Amino acid sequence: MTTRMSGTSGTGAALLLVLMATACGGSGGAEPEQALGSVPIDGVGAVEPDTALAESLPDHIRDAGLVSVATNAPYEPFIAFVEEGDQESFTGLDHDLMVAASARLGLDTDFQQQPFDGLVPGLQAGRYDVIVGGITDNRERQDVASFVDYTASGTGILVEDGNPLDIGSIADLCGLRVGVQKASRQQEILEGYAEQDCDEPIEITSYPENPQAVTALSAGMVDAVGATQVNLVETAAALEGEAELVVDPDHPNGYLASPNGFGFLKSEEELVEAYRASVQSLMDDGTYTDILAKWGQEPIALDEATVNQAID
Questions:
Q1: CA angle, residues 147, 150, 154, in degrees to nearest 5
Q2: Dist. CA 231–CA 229, nearest whole Å
Q3: Which of 84-88, 108-112, 303-307 has the lowest mean pLDDT?
Q4: Do 222 and 204 meet the contact criterion of CB atoms below 8 Å apart?
Q5: Are 150 and 257 in contact (CB under 8 A)?
Q6: Residues 6+ apart with CB under 8 A from 261
Q7: Residue 35: pLDDT over 60
């Protein structure tokens, strides 16, 4: 894939790495894992490069020493701007994890803001190497892209602090009052579950926005809130002492959890495998867990890095 990179900082970094390798008498491509060195992740620590993993990269990426990353911010906690109005500096879970995975491969990163509906077409056109930002790995997108899955989030359940109704799973919502956001995936899932699996119906009340459903829980108007688990993690943290997230051991990432993935062009099989192995190495040494903990997102963690594990 031929990649057109925007921004002088990423291009300059790539040129510097090539010049450094040439000055050292290197042939057959730069060794960016040596030139880049360790990369600090704020609040987590330094990530060291792995020469063996870097050798698995396709030549055009390894020689460039840089991967171009397209995203659409803000979509917290996955991606956001460091400062409002500055669309060149990013932060968030996906930012940290992509920087860390790239550093493990000896690569620098060049993040660029793009419209969300242009991410997959731009990847297909070769304008960047990878797309990130809480992107769901689904089968439709797999027509163009392959996804290295790094988290998963399904329908979570928020209840009153102390869980007085002892709700442990979606099955326990039968016969109860549940608030959801109108026209959300969670409304669809709960309505389908109630119809197929409940002897007593779930009394579902929809609200224009999810915070209104949470307010209804606090006011005692509903017994629980059903929403995307990744959002409820933050809500539960903000309402500590008032509300809590249900932990379902059979569905630790939420009911019908869909994976989130870093998307690469389908034909870039070597690049996909290199990043899968890199993310796995971050899981193995604890860096992955530290990054998720930094953003309060341990409940959406995966046990291993996978590829193309879409559920729909």
A1: 95
A2: 5
A3: 84-88
A4: no
A5: no
A6: 135, 136, 137, 147, 148, 149, 150, 308
A7: no
Q: DSSP alpha helices (H): ranges in 169-295?
A: 185-197, 210-218, 229-238, 269-285, 287-294
- Return the number of other C-beta atoms located less than 10 Å from residue 199's C-beta: 6
Q: For residues 125 and 261, what is the distance between their CA atoms, to the nearest angstrom?
A: 19
Residue 209 corresponds to which tokens in the numbers above?
């926005």
The residues pairing with 66 across neighbouring beta strands, listed in sequence order, are: 108
Tell me the Ramachandran region of residue 55: left when phi exceeds 0, alpha when psi lies from -120 to 50, beta otherwise: alpha
- What pLDDT score was predicted for residue 238? 93
Alpha-carbon distance 169 to 224, whole Å?
11
CA–CA distance, 67 with 306 (Å, rounded to integer): 20
- pLDDT value for 36: 77
- Tokens representing residue 64 in the block: 């460039």
pLDDT at 32 over 50: no
Q: For 253-276, what is each residue's pLDDT tens digit? A: 999 999 999 999 999 999 999 999
The CA distance from 102 to 19, in Å, is 20
DSSP helix/strand/coil, 189: helix
With beta carbons less than 8 A apart as the criterion, state whether 172 and 259 touch. Answer: no
Is residue 8 predicted with pLDDT exceeding 50? Answer: no
Composition of the chain by helix, strand, coil, percent to 5: 40, 25, 35
The 10 Å Cβ neighbour count of residue 88 is 13
Overall pTM > 0.85 = no
